[in-house]
Each structure stands twice: as C-alpha cells, then as structure tokens.
Write a structure and sequence with these properties.
With about 200 residues, this protein is α/β, with parallel strands linked by helices. It has two domains: about 130 residues, 3-Layer(aba) Sandwich (Arginase, Chain A), CATH 3.40.800; about 70 residues, no CATH class. It contains seven helices and seven strands. The longest helix has 16 residues. It starts with 18 loop residues before the first strand and ends with a helix.
C-alpha cells in the first residue's frame, strides 16, 4: 500500500490523497484566512481539516455512479496569504492567486471565513465574462449586512457586496438553509432584489 492510501495514515496533505496540481483539469486549493471572524477563529485551519477528513473516503469512488475524480484532480495546496494585513490587501492576494488557478483549471476552493468568497467571485467574474454569475449560497446566515459591526466589509457582508458590485445576478441568487436572526433588511435582502431564499424552517 502506498503512502497516503490508508485512511488513518495522514501522510498526505492533499485532498483525497490526490496528486499535486500539474495539468489536471480540476484543482483544489485552500484559502486559509479567518482574519475577520467575529466569534470563533480557526477557519484558517479549514482547508487542512477538510483534506484530513477526505482521507476517510479512501479511494474516492462514488458509491452510486462508480466514478472517481482522482485521475482528473490535483491539489494546489494552500494560498500564500498575508494574514496580518488589512482585509483589502488579503483580498487582493486571494483574487490574484484564484485568477491564476482559474486560468488553467476548474477550481474548488476550501476556506477560510466567508470573507474570502468575495475575492473568489471577483476572480470568477473577471474570468467568465461580462454577465453576472449565478450564486447558490448554503448557510445559516444571510451574509447580506451592509456593514460588519461598524466595519465596511467582513465575513457577514460578502453577499451584499457581491450583489452591489454586480458580480452576481440577483435573479439567479439562491440562499439555502438561512436560520439566523437579523434585521429584516438583511434577512430578506436577496428576496427583495429578486432572488430566492429557502430558510431552514421552510426546508424542514
């Protein structure tokens, strides 16, 4: 058995123990940043934890469709980020590195607090043309506050900012699982702009 192929032998820091990224069509990359959390820090370790959990999938073969992504997937490891810098500077680094990856691969990014999403959407919008993107947002929180506890931007504003910047189409924005409290203007913002919200209560 090769190194990294046993579920409990954490000898690989790559998703599913896949190969390092080269010319594979699909890429996984970590975005280890949690510099604007307001409660529980630690999301910067999310990419590492997701990769470790992925090893439990062992060979990664889908139980229904009998396919595996391993032949087509490479791990780009984690972005190099200036974690102690102001949020706009960190976001510039995320956007630039995401854009470079998107130019060569179809990408899945592992966060990171939710503030990283805005940079990823900016890179995706620049890559895929003039039309706004569609957005499917799974979360307990709406992330549509117009400020972040007095700060202009943070992990709770990215959806609002993405709509304001025209990165995503309001009519093609869907939120799923929203259940947190909040003022109506934020809680219903996506619906007020023409999108859809499926709350946790409605789903239940």
């Amino acid at each position: 058995m090769a190194m990294g192929q046993f579920a409990y032998a954490n000898n690989s820091n790559r998703f599913l123990g896949c190969a390092p990224l080269a010319d594979q069509p699909f890429a996984v990359a970590g975005v280890p940043f949690d510099g604007v959390v307001t409660n529980r820090p630690g999301a910067r370790f999310g990419p590492q934890a997701i990769r470790a959990a992925s090893l439990m999938l062992c060979d990664g073969i889908h139980p229904v469709f009998n396919v595996s992504p391993l032949e087509h997937l490479g791990d780009a490891l984690d972005m190099r980020l200036p974690n102690a810098s102001p949020l706009p500077e960190v976001r510039r680094h995320i956007e630039a590195q995401a854009a470079a990856l998107m130019a060569q691969h179809h990408c899945v990014f592992l966060g990171g607090d939710h503030s990283v999403t805005l940079s990823l959407l900016r890179a995706a919008k620049a890559r895929h043309g003039r039309e706004p993107l569609a957005l499917v947002h799974f979360d307990a929180h709406c992330d549509t506050w117009s400020d972040h506890f007095g700060e202009p931007s943070g992990h709770g504003t990215w959806t609002y900012e993405a709509l304001q910047e025209g990165l995503v189409s309001a009519a093609h924005t869907v939120q799923i699982g929203i259940r947190s409290s909040g003022e109506r203007a934020a809680r219903e913002y996506v619906a007020d702009q023409g999108g859809q919200i499926f709350t946790a209560r409605a789903l239940r």
